[in-house]
Fold each of these.
Amino acid sequence: MRAFISSVYLFLYAPIALVVLFSFNAGRNASEFSGFSTAWYGKALGNSFLVSALQNSLMIAFTSAALAAVFGTMAALGMERLGPRMRALFDALLAAAIVVPGVVIGIATLVALVALFSFVNPALASLWPGERPPQLGLGYGSIIAAHGLFSMALVTMIVKARIASLGRDIVEASSDLYATPLTTFRLIVLPQILPSILAGFLLAFTFSFDDFIIAFFVAGSKTTLPIYVFASIRRGVTPEINAIATMVLAASLALILSARLLIREKKSKSGE
Amino acid sequence: MTAALVAPAAAWLVVFLVLPFVAMLVFAFGERAPEGGYQPAFTFAQFANLPTRATAFWNTLMLAPAGALLCLLVAYPTAYYLAVKANPRFRLILVSLVVVPFWTSLLVRTYAWMYILGSRGIPNLLSMIGIEDVRLLNTPGAVLLGIVYGYLPLMIMPIYVSLEKLDRRLLEASADLGAKPASTFFGVTLPLSLPGVMTGVALVTILLLGEYLIPQLLGGGKVFFIGNALVDLFLQSRNWPFGSAIAVTLVAVVVVVLMVAMRIAWKVAGTRQVDLV
């Protein structure tokens, strides 16, 4: 049993470790380590296409996760007071947003937006007083919208679970002591659900930062980091990709570990 | 107040989930415009055309459940160890170590195997000891390996949760009544962990049905899934109505898998309750 478990962990981590190791390889071969070097990192960070793809990914991940955190939390708070039918419908839509394959979300968003633009753009052109009317198109906005869908469902689920575990009694105590609903929210509810909101934000950020397939469909002419990495892999495997992959891994690792710490802190505080 | 809280999320769900689905459904009954894209029509031609992509459906419908079952074979003993055998002091760290890879880039993790199985990796090592011309990449085996690697954490977690919740007194009772460890496992532990197993298998199968990256990178166009056919139809040959018809069919398959899984889960949960009472 022990040997089996050890080999499972080896299986999970050895490939990642290999990529990290060979990102510091002076040579190009994956089978021999010919000396330590950080040259590939220098090469990767000197690549302006890569840096701009990274900036796009960070901006998209931050915006979609922030919107998801705000709207998802609001939804989790409001859903408590919905009627059973509306609540079931809402639950079903949230589950659908999580369970429908990314490739389908990407296609559906692409198709819907292109259909919408084919109506809106001519209308804009005829109404626009100036010479060059603005053209709506695929880009940052469509990626943020599509990522936001999954992220918002994720945040709602996490925060809702936290609210369900909250004791009703302190909320009632607070209103018995003449606190307004807003004060109760600010002083009692918010501090208790804040760690789960932050955890949801971080998970949403990680999801968006790592997503390839949805962005691949709706990015238009824009490039995100996973799209850039995918394109470079297809041009040929090079140690430079190892360096980029290592940086991506380090970033998501930092994010997911913070998220897990937040969720754990929340659990130990509530005495679970 | 409630309406204002729920409104943004509801609007988002309608505009970016419900309406896109309606649009996709409409496209699926349309025709391909001569220059690519979509032109309005009402025809079942796209659905009649589905058999031309039978290979993609066949590969997906064979390899997705096969991959999920392989995952299960590795995941169950791991989850069992974590929940029952592991030292409680290290349990949290060990569980975290399983979860963390799932939240790191699937692209990067799949790429790692491309690197290992590719010509500069294991085949190169083998040629040094005289074994030449080994092909590992771009085979169904490579795709299955990538699937197990990518989705193992997602299979382990629900099984671990159901095993962790298991009432230890039932195991003691079984042993006190003279059951051997093996019959306690097959008579008590395994049936009680079935909901977790069902959740894991259903979750992994559903995500695999829409997989694109793993067959693309490790199957190299030789082992392709529905996801690969969809990317080809939308981004290369620009046959949007046919692509939409395939996507609608994919969603239907997902719904069927989900319903079957829920059916079985209910049955399992139902009998468990009867047993306990």
Amino acid sequence: MRDRLAIITATLAGAFMALQYFITLPIANSAYRAILSWMQIIAAFAIVVGVFGVIRLHLERIGRKRAGWLYSVTLLAGVLVMTILGFAGGIDRGTSFQWVFDHWQAPMQSTVFSLLAFYIASAAYRGFRARSGESAILVMAAIIVMLGRVPLGEWLSPILPNVSDWILNVPALAAKRAILIGIGLGMVATSLKVIAGLERTYLGGR
Amino acid sequence: MNLLETTTTALLTLAIYSFLAGDNPFYKFAEHLLVGLTIGYTLVITLKSVIWPQAIIPMGRGEMPGLVPLILGCLILLRLVPRWAGWSRISLALVVGGGAGVAIPAMLKARVLDQMAATANGVTSWAGWIILIGVLATLTYFVFTRAHRGAWGTSARIGRYFMMVFFGATFAYTVMSRVALLIGRLEFLMGDWLGILRS
């Protein structure tokens, strides 16, 4: 019963949202905007569910004194600090909430992403050892694009920046367009399956 | 930034970089703190900028349409109660179905028709012809209902070469963006914190 109701909801919502693209009536447009807003609110509630799931998991870990439970205390302290600061002092510029974001959260995030620079170097080394023609093309394209974007490339050869631009604007663009067309067609096919009720894995794999 | 601010930021940065020497308690502490702060940040932003203004305030004003998303949102919250978790599928279905409906015209236009038009309209130069050949060759590679033999196989192989160039260029951009972030962090550590670098 519940699953059938869910499938009918998906079909009606999907069919309306797809068809309204071709309808110019103001009422259809306002209904479209309302449903978009509902989807955003539901997604926000889903985030709340996710947050409570994480909190429950870590509270359980602390309660049972599992390995690394002290790290769970750190995680929950982080959640608590941000939540209290956000609700007590606001989220605008100059608040403690923004201070923690600017001085702790954002620098740590950028540090985590910069860590990849070290690991990507080892991946590049494996790429350099590549034996096949295709991987040689990949490595050559990467080297030319990298050198073409830094002053060292221009110092080595004045044509390197132009070659780099040509790679990005011609062969790389061609492959990117074909991949985008493939992704687009795949998404349309999957969306049609969802609307037709043939794709039901979002209901829990049944 | 004062010394206390830069020192706390620098210590957290160093704690994350300590992962380069292997997994260790300093890294784990910083990692869990980052996850906790991010969860708290997301929760506050979600509640304050979406749920409160778009669902709670309209309902407080007695606007009936505001009640619908609130009910649908509460259905999602039932996922936390195992016995009634199944009811959340109705809200989920609205998001998935609605998203699918939005995706059909949007994807068809932006990812298929616009790309095809740009490719076809570009054949006024040599570069445009190369792009056309590259697009067609790459698309033939993705046709798996036909064996990649003969002329079709040659086209698919040329398509693979085009894709390798694209992956190489994407790899290069990823490397450069990560190295730029690394330089930014090192500038902070050596400049703002230690004062070795001067801008």
Amino acid sequence: MPQILVEALAKTYRVAERAPGLTGALRGLVHRRWRPVHALANVSFSLEAGELLAFIGPNGAGKSTTVKILSGILRPTSGRVEVGGLVPYEDRVRHVARIGVVFGQRSQLWWDLPVIDGFDLLADIYRVEPQRYRRRRDELVTMLRLEPLLDQPVRQLSLGQRMRAEFAAALLHDPAILFLDEPTIGLDAPSKLAVRDFVRRLNREQGVTVLLTTHDMHDVEALAERVIVIGQGRLLTDGPFDSLRASVLAERRLHIDFAGAAPVLEMPGVTVRARTERSLELAFDPTKIPTPKLIAAITAKHAVDDIHVDEPAIEEVIARFYDLHDAGEA
Amino acid sequence: MAAARPYLAAFRARCQLMLQYRAAALAGFATQLWWGAIRILVFAAFYGVNAAAAPISLADAVTYVWLGQALLALQPWIADPEIGLAVRTGGVGYDRLRPLDAYGYWYARSVGWMLARALPRAVLMVLAAGIVLPLVGLGDWAWRPPSGVTAALLFVPAFALMTMLGAAVLMLANIIVAASLNERGVNAVLTPLVIVFSGSLLPLDFYPDALRPFLHVQPLAGLVDIPFRIYFADLKGAAALQGLALQAGWTVVLIGLGRLAMERMMRRLEMQGG
């Protein structure tokens, strides 16, 4: 039995619709029309204990709605959800005691209180036994390098420092499952690395199941073996990250600096993406033209200074994927 | 005790936060001292014209005013601003993630908010109106201690109940704020209702005879009129016990109503998104 089970999940919001302008506002007072918005439609997936799954999708795709339903904040319109054998929105109190949640855009610590006071309060709220709490707190403080921040009020922390404190806050009660809704949003590079490193350790070393949503493809690349792509409330794909990349785009880029002027290249299956006086950037499909063969063909005819191969950036992979499914930002 | 631990923590957190605002406490105290003086002058003028028509003595009226000014922050005349903020910013979502009874969690925080604002001002008011005034020879206008040991002992539960009842009223306001996403409208209705019907503006016995049977049984009487009259033994014996019972009864009823309303409101938030 998987730890998280989602079957045919759907969530429909009602949005008040009204004509623009003052007349529209007046008409809205008398007669309001509602328009259904399908935030999620027929989403199914399951997750085993100890897995790390990333949800990616554009804004408004339904990522946060999914996390909110799984964490017990929202009630789905239809479908079945079980987390650790409990239905989150039916058995809220028991459910939330077993999960940790971090929303990248919100804070769960007390803005005006020192970090350590917030931790103490959360330990009380989650009824963590004092000895266990101290052990867990010290462990998290070490892992997240929080010592120097403990007696500072939360409002004085930088965003990166605050997120580290938020992670500790979400984990003091030792939850088996961690939901992260855009945990790296707005963070600088070192903070992002610290967060990723921490999440990875938590997952690998402590076996915490992690479900995260993100826009940041580097998060996904660094963390997740498994990725769900979601767009306009529909689940577009669910599988290993590498196969996602492979399925969408089997494309390589060849960057060549020539010793002399860049030649005019005409080869089947190869397109010129960019050219300068002495360099070319080519795109090709390595399943049709193997990379060594292409390089050999070029270096046989032209004097080359430098040459290197790379792949399209992962953002591009996803953007193309959305286009393919016509699932860009709604 | 273990069961109460999270709720005590919520209460403590709120107290701790509010106690940081020393300037607000001092400003509140100064305002309430000033208004207290004005209200006493108005009473003095009234008693000067026709003392016989007054339902309580001038000394009791003065104490009533000081008590009311000292404990003004215990009255639920505006919804808890933290709730309005939590609803607007979506912080309510995090509240739903706590393994707690949702009503109890907010209720504990609201009690913390009220007490933490009221207590420092009450202490300052005791010093100013109860100790300094007699020392400077204005004993007639001072805040007097409870009328006897029995009154003092009865005031303890009366005070506890006025706090709990106040929080129950506050919770109803909070829930309406959360449901309507707007606190202005709620406060615009709530403030005058509480100020008039609690007896905060005038002891309820000062209102016309025809209104009094109603005024003395409605829930808001338990916020000011009943506990204060117990304090100076205007309500004593069976009448005092009856007053306490009224406070307790309305507290239970309003908490029950609040829980129902909260459940419906949360159901709607769950449906519509936070």
